[in-house]
């Protein structure tokens, strides 16, 4: 296996993956055995996202090493929750007599 972070994997993707799993930075840091301040800086692109940090984050998020952080596979911390369907139609009241 090559020790190169996949293209497109960056701090912004790390932030999105962490939020998608409803984890705080301290929770992810504990699971990845990394400093929460280091992960905070990686998310904000203040520090580089290095291979060792990427591997630890992948393991903590149950994402295969070598994959993007948007992987939708099994989640170690995920409890069964319904996913939000942004494509679902919204219901609005079309009655002109209704004052709501």
> Which CATH-level-2 architecture of the domain at 11-60?
Orthogonal Bundle
Q: Name the CATH class of the domain at 11-60.
A: Mainly Alpha
The number of distinct helices, counting runs of at least 4 residues, comes to 4
CATH topology heading of the domain at 11-60: 434 Repressor (Amino-terminal Domain)
Q: Span between N and C termini? A: 60 Å
**Low-confidence segments, ≥5 residues, pLDDT <50?**
78-93
Number-wise, the strands total 0
Structural class: mainly alpha
Spatial shape: globular
| Biggest pleated-sheet summary | none
H/E order of the elements? Answer: HHHH
What is the residue-mean pLDDT, rounded to a whole number?
75
> Could you tell me the strand content as a percent range?
under 5%
**What percent of the residues sit in helical stretches (DSSP H or I)?**
25-40%
Integer-rounded radius of gyration = 18 Å
Region (Disordered): 73-100
Protein name: Helix-turn-helix domain-containing protein
Biased composition (Basic and acidic residues): 73-84
Organism: Nocardiopsis exhalans
């Amino acid at each position: 296996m090559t020790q190169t972070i996949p293209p497109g994997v960056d701090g912004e993707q790390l932030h999105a993956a962490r939020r998608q799993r409803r984890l705080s930075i301290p929770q992810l840091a504990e699971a990845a055995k990394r400093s929460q301040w280091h992960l905070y800086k990686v998310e904000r692109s203040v520090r580089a996202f290095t291979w060792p940090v990427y591997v630890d984050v992948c393991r903590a998020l149950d994402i295969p090493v070598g994959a993007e952080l948007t992987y939708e596979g099994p989640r170690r911390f995920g409890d069964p929750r319904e996913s939000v369907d942004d494509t679902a139609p919204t219901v609005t009241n079309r009655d002109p007599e209704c004052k709501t």
